[in-house]
Design goal:
Layout: H1 2-21, E1 45-46, E2 53-58, E3 63-69, E4 73-82, E5 91-98, E6 104-105, E7 107-109, E8 115-116, E9 122-129, E10 146-156, E11 165-176, H2 227-249
Parallel strand pairs: 1-3
Antiparallel strand pairs: 2-11, 3-10, 4-9, 4-11, 5-6, 5-8, 5-10, 7-9
């Protein structure tokens, strides 16, 4: 009995360890602050876990960042949006996370879509992702190793507040979930989007010559067994049957 209680206590402590480690992510020592953000998936600014971000933007902008996630890690995002100028009404903000295949990943904790009134000077958003798995079925949608994207945007706000300046602080924390994994496979390669551009053509390509089709006297004839042959044969048989039937049923002329 004591062995079972001890094992349960150890398992509970192991399960709570990642949550406690990610409760308050802190910047890595010596990390350089990032001062820019992308406007799409292709232009997302690359950051590392523990690297602080401070960006000035406008209300209504869609801000994108990307970071790398390895198997066994649990990531937490802390976002703070500050409003230097007063606003006219309430607004709703959202932070979303996508994997390398542009699949939206669910948050297990954190205020992902908070609403603040006009008197608030800042709003805090958060998202704790699920543990990154080393392998999963393609249809499962589980988080896999690779590049992850963060998108910050406002979904609802009064029109007069559109374009007002804001200041965004972002910090991504990562911690090892610990414990043995129950997965029995391994991902062949991380989920990284294919951003390799195609080859730029310096000159207009020369079209290949088209071989002329060989024609003969029988080229216009339909193929044997085609529907045209059967239609023609059926028409001839119908005409012959009509002539024969007319000859049999025609009354002889009287002189």
């Amino acid at each position: 009995m004591r062995t079972l209680i001890g094992a349960a206590t150890a398992a509970l402590a192991l399960a709570l360890a990642p949550a406690a480690a990610l409760a308050a992510p802190s910047p890595s020592p010596g990390a350089t602050t990032v001062t820019k953000a992308g406007t799409s998936f292709l232009t997302a600014t690359t950051i590392d876990a523990g690297q602080p971000v401070r960006v000035g933007a406008s209300t209504g902008d869609h801000l994108y960042w990307s970071f790398r996630a390895d198997a066994g890690q649990v990531h937490q995002l802390d976002v703070t949006v500050t409003f230097p100028k007063p606003r006219t009404g309430a607004s709703t903000w959202t932070v979303e996370v996508f994997d390398g295949l542009r699949r939206r990943q669910a948050c297990t904790a954190g205020a992902q879509t908070p609403t603040v009134d006009a008197a608030a000077t800042a709003v805090t958003l958060g998202c704790t992702l699920r543990r990154v798995r080393p392998w999963a079925e393609p249809w499962s949608g589980d988080p896999l190793p690779g590049t992850y994207y963060v998108r910050l945007s406002v979904t609802e706000l009064p029109e007069p507040d559109l374009g007002l300046p804001i200041e965004v602080d972002l910090l991504v924390g990562a911690a090892d979930s610990g414990g043995a994994s129950g997965d029995d496979g391994e991902l062949a390669a991380p989920l990284v989007p294919n951003t390799r551009a195609g080859t730029v053509l310096a000159a207009e390509p020369t079209p290949e010559p088209v071989a002329e089709e060989e024609t003969d006297l029988t080229g216009w004839l339909p193929e044997a067994g085609s529907r045209w042959v059967w239609t023609s044969v059926g028409g001839v048989l119908a005409a012959v049957a009509g002539v024969v039937g007319f000859a049999l049923t025609r009354r002889p002329r009287r002189r």
